[in-house]
């Protein structure tokens, strides 16, 4: 299977994307304290 | 300048207003659950989708639950899109949906593209016809055009509910709002627009690219594809990502003066309609009229500046002895980078329509505009999407400005800040202030990073393509960089050209590579500047939803008259100028004041 999804860089990209959303979820909790 | 040019601009404003008013009323009925013309058709699919999503539409969500649903939904969309784009050349993809056998773009470019389409930005480092398979265009990019537009609209709806809410903390149900937006707002409109576009010559097929022989004996490949369906939702959803690299300048996307007018109308119909929706929902239509007047005044001002500047030409053109006046057979003006079939007015108007909104589609080359003409899209983006703005984003962004204007106005005249009967307190003002400032901060921070670092400067076209530093220190190079991050932060997607994150020597991505710095920084820029303001807008909705409404008294400052319109325009311009004027001076303004041609 030649699918490029197995590349390690894709894991890095997806982790970066998820990290952004984790930050956004944390902002929701942070806003509550304002 | 010509009479026909001015007539086009006036006619556009009149027709838009005439269409947006009833459409706003229609949306108010959709989001209050009233029966509409399409209910018999979509009631069944609506119930089915609730079952599929395991959502209870009757359950009200507070702002935090609403925001979390939105974030999780968007994350799922981002991952799905990333996987679709990175597997476009996988064995399981049917040949008919990738007839040219295009490889996937590199991971860093895909990160940027996924972030771009998921955030309604549609910033494109790639060219659609040389990078994307039909499958990627259809189930990847087009699906996100729908969903990202829906996300923007539901936030505006939730904020309006919060503003008018009389008790409790509920601001609606995200899943119900999303399903209704897709079924009752976006679906019927996009089918209608796609059919009209196809009837006018916008192509819609899954054919192989055509090879033709030119009169000079060479061969040329003409790209095909399912353009009409994608183009319609990218206009209506103010997404802006072109099927082709040249976007709405391509004759297969925008073949005539009529389609140009129709496409501009498609871009603004939902953002303009939402303003009237707000007026109707608030129980005081004059509130909607006041905001509409604010937007229209600023919009027409921007159009006029762009049209006059482009019709006049630049100092450099005059210094070079070029004739830019109206002569027989030509409308004159600066026609560099513009299509003859649209002319100066059709280009200036289209450019303004797509940069006041988050659309970012282009029918001309913005980087070829005169200095002052080019400053118009900069100024539009600097206003942070409040002049109609993107679908939903325009309304919720200007409502945050309204909140700020009420507060400032109250301080100026010594009155208690009140808005639609609700007293404004420190928490709401802090939330609105943060919501307004995040986008400019993200844009300026990323621009500073890119211009101050070697990795960032590698994306400036003169460096990326010639490996020389010629032109890197020009105002044009700064404009390219600044516009790139400003456009991405505002989720606009239009480009001042030049700034690149993708080096693609061959069609199909063979041997291509991304510029990681620009791709990743741009991706974060788009995501953060898209969702953080959304979270603050929803928090404002939550804060206002629980407030008691008190009757207006003599001390209440009115928010539905001409004085407030002037105050609101002043606040918007002041915030935009204070945040962006120094940067604008370094790029387009200095370029507009010099006879040097960059």
Describe the structure.
The complex is a heterodimer of chains A (34) and B (598). Chain A is an all-alpha fold. In chain A, 74% of the residues lie in helices and 0% in strands. Chain A has one helix and no strands. The mean pLDDT of chain B is 90. Chain B is globular, with a radius of gyration of 23 Å. The longest helix of chain B has 31 residues. Chain B is an all-alpha fold and 598 residues long. Chain B contains 20 helices and six strands. Chain B starts with a helix and ends in a 6-residue tail after the last helix. Chains A and B meet through helix 1 of A and helix 3, helix 4, helix 15 and helix 19 of B.
Order of helices and strands of chain B: HHHHHHHEEHHHHHHHEEHHHHEEHH
| Most residues in contact: chain pair | A-B, 24 and 38 residues
The succession of helices and strands of chain A, N to C, reads: H
Radius of gyration of chain B (CA) equals 23 Å
Mean pLDDT of chain B: 90
Quaternary: heterodimer
Share of helical residues of chain A: over 70%
**Secondary-structure class of chain B:** mainly alpha
Number of helices of chain A: 1
Count the DSSP helices of chain B.
20
Compute the number of strand runs of chain A. Answer: 0
Distance between the termini of chain A: 51 Å
Low-confidence stretches of chain A: none
Give the DSSP E fraction of chain B (strand runs of 2 or more residues).
under 5%
Report the strand count of chain B. 6
Question: How much helix, percentage-wise, in residues of chain B?
Answer: 55-70%
Strand content of chain A: under 5%
